[in-house]
Amino acid sequence: MSRPARHGSSRARTPGAAGALAATLAGAIGAVIGLAAFQALPTPTSTPAATQTSDAAAPAASVPAEDAVTASPSPSPEPPTPVRFTLVAAGDVLPHTPVNRSAAGENGYDYSPLMAALDPYVSGADLAFCHLEVPVTPEGSSPSGYPLFSSPPELVRDLAEAGWDGCSTASNHTVDKGVRGVEATLAALDANGLQHAGSARTAEEAAETSFYTVSSGDREIRVAQISFSYGTNGMPVADPWEVNLFDAEASDAAPIIAAAEQARADGADVVVASVHCCVEYRTEPTDAQRLLAERIAESGAVDLYVGHHAHVPQPIELLPGGPAGEGMWTAFGLGNYLSNQSTLCCVPQTSNGVVLTATFTVDPDDAVQVAVEWTAITVDRADSHTMHVLTDIPDGAGTLGAAEVQRRWQMVRDAVGDEAPERTSPAQALAEASAAVLTPAA
What is the pTM of this model? Predict the structure, then answer.
């Protein structure tokens, strides 16, 4: 399964002994012929410069160019260049029943108008990872909301059309609809060309690493995504491969670290961990949540940590550790992407979320550098759940006035902290090509 990054190379060639002898004889014969020709010609007004010289006592003579033996210098190999690419990730895709009603129409469900303002921030990047928190409705069933979710399959179609390349699927709602829900979710992602990580239909599928590739020149970088959840709200898990789980109360990072190390053994140059944890509606990470992230950073197995589940934006910090010992960027929680949550049900911050933009530089020696930025987003629940980038609407939009836009932006700013800079424009692709590495359904 391993396919390491490829590097261009060239090798100078040197002639063997037989080639050297032949060259010497040819030069001698050429010199004699050239001398005879020189003596038979009238004295020239100017003598061409010789291409070769000899210490032997003989009249100076020019050697015809066609008889000269010259060594063409081998071209210098082009040095490998760094591969740079952008990756965006966002918070929970959590379509409550009111969200589904906003997307419903005469011809079925269409979520694209709700998410349209975010599309440039998604499609502009080389890679885009969403977090699909809920299962897709199994055939013969109807979409449902809290507490046992399932979304129409059109949601996955519209995520793909918006520019997402894949989704993490491990969450506390992964098995809300049992085995059939897991199967329906992965079938919908497969049908729409989206990669997925965090749940599986078979043990064999669970053992596979979810890969993406980015390439520039003759170098190809493999990006792995792993996805884990703290639990399933007490819902039974028929088989352990249905959803990747870890013990959050014990801050047990071992399963996540093992998956990251396996991804690297399978050929990953970059590993992104999507972690669904821990306590909802809290801007500040819990002690267990922070310890979990610190252990993952210390392992050196993960390049970027992306957190989910809290439904509110949380800090973005550079934790000590990481593969190169230069730290691991950690987004403890990206809040919500598309949901119905607001102050009416929860806390005011649940109306908001973060689009995380990570810029990766993979050097010729395969060392990875990561820089991150954040973009504040919101959902206008009263305007058919229309989504906005807050800095794009300073004067307000829909039912949101300028003062409310500023208030929501400030809540996001206060939550993420000041370690990472804000980004107010869509990400741009930096690599020449990028793609999800899709495998046939198990």
Answer: 0.83
